[in-house]
Design goal:
GO terms for molecular function: transferase activity. It comes from Burkholderia cepacia. Keywords: Transferase. This is Glycosyl transferase family 2. By secondary structure, the chain is α/β, with parallel strands linked by helices. It has a single domain, classed as Spore Coat Polysaccharide Biosynthesis Protein SpsA, Chain A (Alpha-Beta Complex). The strands form 2 sheets. A 9-stranded mixed sheet has the order 5-10-6-9-4-1-2-3-11, sandwiched between helices. The protein is globular. It starts with 8 loop residues before the first strand and ends with a strand.
Amino acid sequence: MSTLEPLSLDIVVTWRGRHELKQALPSLCQLAARHDGGVTVVNYGGDADQLRDLMAGHAANVKVVRVDESGWFNKARAQNIGAAHTRRPLLFFCDCDIIIPDGQLDALVRQLQAEPDAFGTVAGVTETVRNARKAGQVAMFGYHLKLRLANGRALEIIDNEEDAADGTRQAPGLLMVRRVGFECIGGYNGCLLGWGWEDQDMIARLTLSAGLMRRQSGTVLHVSHDDDARIRHYPPVQDRWESRDRMFRQALANYDRGDWLGTYEEDALRATTRSPVSAS
């Protein structure tokens, strides 16, 4: 296939009990239509009636994958299950509280179309409510993480929380990747249970294991909410930083022993053979 041949796009959104989806869904459907694609919402243990109400007016353009899961929300497994229910060559994993202004991701799609050895993330997010994290004197904080393997491959992750002055931050979790690249590293790692590192883990494995190059383009809006909404359905922690730190340490131990595979194969098998998962 020519690298210049248009790539159709499947958008995978994971959900449990989040009302912000109602605001996000119109732009997701619009993005899918722009790129001959589709939207798949994975209802991972959420209320089906609530989801139906939130999708009013857009249900005909959305595939819903229902996972009867009474335990904690597992975003990584939910995203793998969603991917298993799609077929297009390009995947975009998007949160249920993201509004995508028209045309903002066109350049990223073109970059991946032209570069088979690349994956992409959205360059930035702006909160719909400034200072949504209710910062006091610390207006912005971030981190710069470096990893280098024995084989010479290296990764730099630069991330920051919302800048209280302008409402902006990075968007590592809004990932666009060719299906072949996604599958070659086993998708997301569902063994990382909690909030906060499954996205950076995916970037690390695509870079350090698959050898792909990261591209960043486009800015989107995040429907602002508090931390309770962010971590409510995950295992209890003192705060989200505790969760992210634990997941980071687990991921780093995986890399150190050369364990680069996610749980896509296992999750895809569940998605296609077990009764608790269904699509509508």
